Fold each of these.
Amino acid sequence: MARLDANKFETPTPVQSGCIPPALEGRDVLATAQTGTGKTAAFVLPLLQRLAAGPRGQGIKVLVVTPTRELAAQIDERVEAYGRHLAVRHAVIFGGVSQRPQEAALRGSPEVLVATPGRLLDLLRQRVLRLDRVTHLVLDEADRMLDMGFVRDVRAICAAIPASRETLLFSATMPPEVAGLAKALLVDPVEVHVSPTVTTAATVEQSVVFVAKADKRALLERVLSDERVARALIFMRTKHGANRLSDQLARAGIQAGAIHGNKSQNARQAALDAFKSGTSRVLVATDVASRGIDVDGISHVINYELPTTPESYVHRIGRTGRAGASGEAISFCDPDERGLLADIERIIRRRLPPNAELAVALPFALPLRTAAAPPVALPTLSHELPPKRSPRRYRGTTRDAYRGAR
């Protein structure tokens, strides 16, 4: 309670209200909840309470399995923050770094272990750790773990844990694969459904800007020059693209870090730490970070490139507008991405409104048709783009129309 007061927790979020009581009773829980809804506290708080009330010092009692390194580190931070007065021993293990420090941490007999599946299974097979005393298992971001190909690892890990355990499974979506995993691992679970699986947070203002691909970087620099952009997370589709964009922004005088799967863990952590501390207010990421970044105060998410999987859009923009705060998500859409935009709108069941402020202010952004504009082949509706043509001709037509309008 002292730590809740220190963290200014007064009213539980819906996922906390739904999960904490059954978790305290020892029930299995199947929860569908987006990131940013307070789900980490929904399982960390009751399990710390159960741990403190039972016998201590008998090996790993609570195991949390999560798909990414960043998310594992952040959950471990929350265990530290919430369990500070309980003298809870905890450790975190993940791949991409040396195994030796993690082996040393395990020799300290942690009661709570947070881990990614690959490294956990490696250490289990090397007999560096034992899971035969685990009483509470949390599978976080289950759909993401399945997307990343961890389903066999997860099943092997669960087979090494006593069947009498309490299991809590959290997932942002509930595809058939996740439902099947839940049916195999959970016993008479309490189901908690906080929100539809693919809805976007009401606290996030969403918009789209139609822009030629070659003009996206100039548009991005224009957005980042706005003083309202306190902290921006920018999404790319590829690792190479993330590196290239962060380098280009640095040359333009905009301090930006990059985070993706090819970065070493130390480099990823350094970029994330700079972003958290405010040393760098811009972070360029691939979808590996769409659910793994839990940073307060992200004012803007910018989809520099639209995701190929529409569900990823929901998870990307979920990095802002968290825990009741407001945020803004701006998507750049070039002619080749029209199909991706349609897929996103289909799954979120709404059209993204055009960002009129950017469209009007920038000569290289596709403007909306206005009364002052000459009768050229420009979009008459926000999602009616001209026929595809070569980028050079496409951009020239747009600029000519803009000059004519002025």
Amino acid sequence: MMKTTNYISLLFLLTALLSGCRYLTMTLEQVKSRFHTTSSSTTHRMERALPEKYGVLMGKVISATSTRKRLVVIAFSHELSRNTIGDYTVLPEPGPYLLYVPEGIYRILVFADVNDNFICETNELVGQHENPDFARVSAGEVVGERNIVISNARIKPFDSPVELNLSRGKDKPRSLEDGGTVHLDDEIFSRKIGSIGLWTPSKFIKEVGVDIYARDGFDEKKTPILFVHGSGGTPRDWEFIVNSVNEDCYQPWFFYYPSGLRLKILADLLYERLDALYNKYKFHQLCITAHSMGGLIVRSFIDRHEFNAPGYDLKLFVSISTPWGGIDRARSAKEQGLFVFPPSWKDLASGSEFMDNLFQKRIPPEVNFCLFFGYKGDNLLLKGADDGSVALKSQLDFRAQLEATRSYGFNENHVTILFSEEVFARYSEVLYKTARCQEKPIEPRTTDSKKTE
């Protein structure tokens, strides 16, 4: 009886702590769900692996001509039995692909479903990654640049056809890298899809992918602002702020990702996607705005950005309601071990290895880092002041404060802080002082905020 009571209590705690994320739907069945890919062949199935044992393979399928047929990119295990699939993805045309696989060695092949029967047959093999022949991925690693060129050259034979449960639904939206545009009211940005990204990231990757999207095409005269949502969120979280930004000066971009993945993987994916955009568009400056857990991902990304010194300058980083000190209840849930929770929560837990390593390097002085926090909350499960989801002491962790150029406090909770005119007034002020497009900031309509140097 006591064990059942503890289970329910912890489930309630987790629900309450996550309730501030706008696009989160959680049920008991979702909590009990396991995280694994659903890829299969007719006779084989990839052995179940724990989430922390997964990594990412990514690259591009390149073709000089249009195939006019759906392409299927498959990672076959080199270590397990024949036709064992680690993951696959369906592309409506040549372009970027991403596979979420258990650690191991894989052969990556591309099939063209010529006869539209949703079966990858021997004569439909059109490309493979060849240099090297096999791709090795470790747990938590992002392996990029596994590009595949479709050609008529001789390809190593493939043993037998593989039948896949391919989606017959709508095609994935085209990313900014592919020259596509999106609307924030598109179905892909619904709370249901955001929840899938939290609880079953492998399904999210298969149906949505991990990419950067934009409402308009790239414009070299405008400064890009990348918006990064939080746990269970989607780009739709940013609708109020984005609709208020002067788009004569700025171009909003959105990093859309499955928030259940480990945070280091997500930071690496963010780096790879931005690097691909830079290689294509050669933008000069970038501003980033992140909410909640998204701020942790961006902070980890900044370390790699600084180390690799890409061709663009990161001018501004605004974090909003980010748990810089971690979440105590996530640590408690992990220690109790009474239910399954998203892999990302292992990193969100206060005292986790990810949190301990987050501030090993300082943010470069040329990056204007502004810390926004909220204090309008009354969560009985949190000690001290909070914003309804994250404790104030975590939002104002001293390590983040030491790096911040300025900190701004608002009488808002974890959700309303993204829909506040006062918050946007301060945000507009920050943009004015940082970005090259010198629009005049709007005047705040209220004065209920705190500003610290």
Amino acid sequence: MSFDNLGLEPRLLQAVESMGYATPTPIQSGAIPLVLAGNDVVGCAQTGTGKTAAFVLPTLQNIIAKPGGPRALVVTPTRELCLQIVEVATAVGRHTRHRIAAVYGGVGYEPQRKAIRRGVDMLVATPGRLLDLIGQGDVDLSHVEVLILDEADRMLDQGFWPDVRRIIERCPTDRQTLLFSATMSPDVLKIIGATLKHPERIDVAPRNRPIEAIEQSVYPVAGTQKNDLLTRIIKQERLERVLVFTRTKHRADRVAQMLDRAGVRSAAIHGNRSQSQRVRALDEFKRGHCQVLVATDIVARGIDVEGISHVINYDLPNVPEDYIHRIGRTARAGKSGVAFTLFSPEEHDQLRDIEKTIGSVIACEDLAGFNYSHDRMVPDPDRPAVQAKQQTQRPMAGSGARGRRRGGNGRSGGQR
């Protein structure tokens, strides 16, 4: 299929050509005709699949540029995603003569207010700053014809949904609504049921295998020893650009502070940090001034940092797909990468679900010279429903379905 077959007007096809798009991605070929037809649409697709163009192209074809406030509104959780969407929309708008504006926190209010006052056809916004502008009377959403909720699962995870709900209440009820999310959790499904009208669904998110170029290992360790093992791995392996994931915001702060005290330059990034703090931490990490970035899943999608050699899961995520998004931050642009997971006994169920999702058993390793506690549990590769690569893994002694406990410095797979 080509873009010519999707129902786009010549000016949109010209925009596609100028942006260098050759053939539509699955989310584009699936979503564009449905959006053009005026349907509410749910797209399950992660960043990097072309979903921004999938909603920008047909939306700008459908709306007419005229005074009276934005005709299309895109709500997205972070400044970084906001800017990515604006970049695509602006490139398309040069051909359609639509006016594009972005509003987000962490920068001055007045320039954004003036941009809206000059006139805007598509407004791309983060929830907090948009509500500020609405509260000051600087944005009128009564003419919105198309509402686009991008990265809905992340907005839920980061606690933005009450703000998003207030924004939705300001939009006309007879609008078209598009929702995109990398995962379809029960909470996202509830939102779809309450917000969209008989939506068409497109699911193109890869749900099974992580990037093949990533070497994955599990390091069984007692929960009380995770700090020591993490520090030793980073120092002993001389890791230079590491992304560490924790399950909670408070733990991200504690791990970053612990690493700093141990002489490892670290910063934390999560939803409780202000936009300026997050931008500063990312910038320090990108420039190499910060050796380790400790993050919650806010960073797992939507932010590209080149040159990450290692991802370390300090905690396993509760949602198996988040594991794939996390480790996908390494092995970018055709390069190889490494993902380590610090596995404690209470995370057995999460590891089982992750291995079921990716279709393979992850090899276990020990760090040479580390004095492991007897409270750790080494998972058994004979667990049910994990069969795809079992023949390539060396079985461990023991046969319990929940694994076995092991102490000391014996190898549990490979050794680094």
Amino acid sequence: MLVSNLKNIKMKYIFKHKIKHLIMLTMLLALTACETDFDNPNAATADQTFSSREGILAATVGMQQIYSTTGIRWIVETPAITTREGGITTTFQNMIELEDGGSDLPNFNSNVQGLWASMLRVMKTCEDIESNASLISLEAGTESGLLAYAKLFKAMSIGGLAQNFEHVIVQTSNNNDASFIPRIDGFKAAITLLNDAKSILTTTAISDEFTNEITLGNIDVLNTINAMLARYNLFAGNYDAAISAANSVDMLSTSVFAYDSQNLNPIWSRVFQSTEKRFKPRDNFGLPNTFSFDASDGRLSFYLIPLDETNQNGLPIEDLAGFFGAETGPLPLYIPDEMMLIIAEANLRKSSPDITAATTAINNVLTDTDDVFDINANVAAYSGTNTVDALLDEVYRNRRAELFLTGMSLEDSRRFDRPQPSGASMIFTEERNRNFYPYPDTERNSNPNTPSDPSI
């Protein structure tokens, strides 16, 4: 199994980079922390951080670390509760508010605040890397790697916002007056960044120095760029571009965030850690019983361990497995079979749907036995009705199973026109209890450009 094979990589990560990570995280925290009423004479300034090779490399790894720990926590957990992928197992108010949902979800909910703030935090560091990389004496392949990586992570951060908020910020402002644009335009901005990143790497390949200092071989940058191009082009309605990008992804390549004893798998921490237990996964991947799975479907046993319990609101819950069962287990940046499901959906949503191509892509997922992460459905090929609507339902069902707890459930629920939430709170039979999140009060209280909150 690939996940087991990554243990050696993680051990190298731990011993070679533990001290370095502490240093660079201190630098990043100093760089991105909220303003206070006093100056810290020991804190590194932005000019100091980005004026040297060591500083900019440290900031880049720190940016990756913030996204892969704090960012992933909010990206996954927040929509998971809203769309019933997970059921809460805590009395913490922020989680109660999320599961209750409805129009009364407060702007000060810490999950909403955390999702928004962590994405902006990563974006700001990405912008600083882009602004300064060319000003430092670096190997050409190291500079190209830094620029492409910053654009990739900024695109993923914009995408994380656009999947959850009606309007988003795509350029931060030190003056607290950043402009907002509609979320679809946010996806388009992310696509532009990704195309720029791809062009940079096509011109100048990543250096060994960049790989050894930043990715440690865990992240295939070019394949990840193509995977994100496929994802965001689909979300933006650019179906031919989504198909082309998905087809360009090497299905045998992997990209994972590696964790260590100082930086734990953030979902494991939220589900298993004694002081942090917040939720458990829902039965049937949180889908209503109208979407059923063959009992032999390997994705059930990959992600879920039968529990036969309900949470405090009567929602049936399971124990969690898969990528989330170990405290230092790696998390993929994307699941390879997501590309097949993008190809299927895009072919169905095109102005001239290609049912044959969509069915072939769906069957590649259903009959999979050699997935690089061992997410193998290994069931019979699709035998349902060959209509666009029926096949879109099949794509949705499989996206929920393949991409479980990857942060895309709210985007998917809206895009596939699943039943609208009523706006009332504590209606636990609803498939989702919000369409979008309100803007956090931390943004509204400082940025006069913050839009009105969505009604639901």
